[in-house]
Amino acid sequence: MGQKVPGEKPLSFQEYTGISSSWLQKRPKLPSRNWLIFLSTTAAILGLYAYDRKQCKQIHEHYVEKVKHLAEAPLSSSDFARKVIVYGSKWPGDEDSQRAMKYFRKYVKPILVAAAVDYDMINGRHHGDLADLVAEKIKIGRRIDLGLEPPPFQPPLPIPGLRAEEARRRESEGGIIIVGRHTFKEFMHGLKRGWTEPPYVVDKQELLAHELANDGVFDETITQDEGEPTLQPSSTLLPPKNSALGSHFGMPPLSSQPPRTSVQSKTATEDPKLLVPPSNIPNLPPLLLLPFTNLIGFTLIPRMIWDFFNRRHDVRNGAEAAYTLITTSPRPLRGPLSAREDGLDEVETSPGSDLSFDLEAEKYYKLGSVPDEIEKARKSYYEALRPKIATARELARGTRAPTKDEQNHPPPTEVELRAERMKKELRWRSNLVGSHIIDPATPVAWDPRFAGALSIYSTFKRQND
Fold first, then answer.
1. Are the CB atoms for 282 and 453 separated by under 8 Å?
2. pTM
C-alpha cells in the first residue's frame, strides 16, 4: 500500500494498487543547471538541422514545380529527350574519385529528372584520365572525318537516333556539365590536345614497352667465374628520367615517328597535311560550369560542421544550375584577355575571363608534392624488384629448389613482374602529367580557335550566406 498523506483520503485505486498519493501531488520544477545546458544545446542543434532540411525540401519542390511542365510535353515517335553529358574527375587529395559525381547526383540530377532531361556521367578515376578521354574522343571523330577510320555501324533502315548526323546534332543541342574547376582544367587540356595533336593512333603501352626495353632493369650478364647469368650490377634500377613520354605522356613530339601499329597510324605519319592542326574548330556543345569544393583536412572541420547545417545552399546552387541549363540560352565563352605569343599554354587568368571560373576552390587542393611522392614510390619499388627478378629466374631455371613458403605462395614469374612494372609506370607517368594539369600554378589550357567554338551558360555566384 502507498504511503498516506495525513488529512487526505486516498483514492480507491490507490488503495488497491499501492500508488502513493504524493505522486499525484508532485509540482513541476526547473531542471538542474546541467540538464538545462544539455536540453538547450540539443534543442538548438535539432532545430538548426530541422530548419535546414525543411528549407532544402522547399527549395527542391520550388524548382521542380518550375520545370515539371517540360516533362509533360508530348514527344513524337521520332524524337528523343534532351541529353547532356556530365564530366567529373578526382578531387586533388581525396581517395574517393566519385565526389564530383555524388555532388551532381544529389543536387543537380533531381531537377534534370523532373524536366525529363537525360544524362550520361563520365568520371575520371585518376588525375589526367578525363583529359585523355576527351582528347581521344576528338581524335576518333577527326579520323572518321578524314577517312582514316571506318564510321560506326549504320543500320540499313533509317532508325531515328542511330544516324551519326543525328547523334552529333543531339549531342550539340544537349550540353555539357562540368563539375568543379579541376574537371574544367582537365576538359580544356583534353580539348586542346584533341584539336592540336595529329589524329593518328598511339598505343601508350607499346611506346612505353619500347622505352623500358632498353633501360637495363631486366638485363643480366654472364660472370667469368661461374659462367652463369646474373643481374646487371648497376647502381640503380630506376629508369632514366629523360624519357620520350615524360613531358607529354601519351603522345610523342610532332617531329618524332611513333611505332606504326596500324594502317591508320601509317597513313597519318606519311601525310604531312595531317600533322597540321585544323585552322577552324566546329561549334562544340555549350558548357555549364558547376562550382564544387570538397573539404579535406583536420583544419577544415569547423567549415564541414557549418556546411552540414547549411545544405540548403548546395541545394539552391545545384537547382539553380540545372534550371539555368534547362531554360536559358548559352553565350560565347570569354577567353583570356591576353596571351603570350611564344606559348599559348601560358595565358592570363583574369576576373573578366570565364577561365577564372571557381578560382577560389584551388586553395582547398591537397596535391602535396606529387613528383617527390612518385619518385619515392619508384625508388622503393625498384629496390624491391631486384630480389624478385633473381628469385623468379632461379626458380624458372631450376638452379635451386623452391622453399616451403614459395610452394604455398608461388612468387611472381618474370613475365608477371614485367607486366606489373608496365602497369605501375603507366600509372606513375599519367599521375605526374595529370597533377600538373590541375596544379594551381598551371593556367587553364587555351587555344585561339576556341573563341568562336565554345559557349557557356551564364554562370551564377555561389550562394553560401
1. yes
2. 0.81
